[in-house]
Amino acid sequence: xxxxxxITLLVMLVTTSALQAQLxxxxxxxxxxxxxxxxxxxxxxxxxxxxxRLTREEAEKYLRDRARQKFTVIxxxxxxxxxxxQTPNAYNEIPLEANDPTKPREAYFQHVDFIIxxxxxxxxxxxLFPTWGDKxxxxxxxxxxxxxxxxxxxxxxxxxxxxYKSRKNVIWVLGGDRTPRNESDVAIWRSMAEGIxxxxxxxxxxxxTFHPQPNDxxxxxxxxxxxxDAWLDFNMLQTGHCRENNVWDRIKxxxxxxxxxxxxxxxxxxxxxxxxxxxxxLGTSSAYDVRMFAYIDxxxxxxxxxxxxxxxxxxxxxxxxxxxxxxxPWYEAIDLPGAQxxxxxxxxxxxxxxxxxxxxxxxxNDARGSNDHIQATRGKDYLFVYSAQGxxxxxxxxxxxxxxxxARWYDPRTGEVKDAGRFEGxxxxxxxxxxxxxxxxxVLMIDDASKNFSLPGMxx
Length: 460
Hints:
Blueprint: H1 2-17, E1 24-25, E2 32-33, E3 39-40, E4 42-46, H2 50-53, H3 56-68, E5 73-79, H4 106-121, E6 125-131, H5 150-163, E7 170-174, H6 183-200, E8 208-210, H7 223-226, E9 235-238, H8 247-255, E10 263-267, H9 279-282, H10 287-299, E11 304-307, H11 310-313, H12 330-333, H13 337-350, E12 358-359, E13 374-378, E14 382-387, E15 393-396, E16 404-410, E17 417-424, E18 428-431, E19 442-448
Helix pairs in contact: 3-4, 5-6, 10-13
């Protein structure tokens, strides 16, 4: 028993120490890396109401389950969306005195501290939203109230940046589902960002982005307003909750901005969500819906992906009124199939050299449309092609190294691999996935045979 306790403590120490140095942007400005230069795959979950609605015991269960499912980042909001200023947390605490951002209440933030630290102990990063955007701009669907101006945004930013400067598992995210209306809104967010940088001790002590509403396809998400700001380390998009969505073009628009910055889809279509907010006519989203956008996003150039679940973001429970037709309590929804399948995307990407991976549609002859889209990506010695409905395609194999190539089919539903043969490189070759039709998505893996890469999820 004593030996088991010692081993458990050592595992916790090793896990925690791995998060004692902040993530940073890679030298090629396309990825995030750890303090020792190892590539980091962002597999996120939108747990917006985590701090606001869960007890410590519930939060720990949620974090343990997501760590078990190989998630790496949890996106959560301090001043929460669902009346986060007036409705208290699970311990009857509200975050601010009299809705004043310059007067944070210690008891509320001790609960936030606990969850951030518990996440670190499980090897999880927290993408920390200091506030949801309705506290800057309420709009018709927000509760608000609007409490921020340039002056108090800087004070609050400085305070919260200083409070969490020693927590190296914190990634800062401003915005919170709001598109700046005008220069005044932009100035408030910039003021909060500069406050965080000041409180944390400088630009090299923060990793930060901005989460907008879906905006025009060519805008590049956060890049529309903040691309050249020193505090914005990577661009974030929200591609929204519809099926007919050319997410690949949206990722590309941000990817192609200069100077280069990493890009991430921070809110795509959630699992079990009313499609386009219209469940009556369009139904609710499936595991296939969220899986398809995940692979397309990453193959189109994103350095990772954020999964979301309609029941999880709101922490739905029998004691709460479901929002927009949520079906399951959060503790059941946590095991929905789409969430379980996200780990196979991470395993695939991590199985090959990550830092030389680029999007490359010149690998294929037909990208097709929004429902049966085909998306390609490659490194120097390998390539992946995702076929959303198992349609055939022709691959230009001369784009990677190797006189002899090995091909395999990867199943995004199970993580299983099927052999697809060996052949000489430098030639175009047509491939037909094992099955086809709606929900029958496949990834073709082609490797330089001389590299002897391991299968996804397995070490060499």
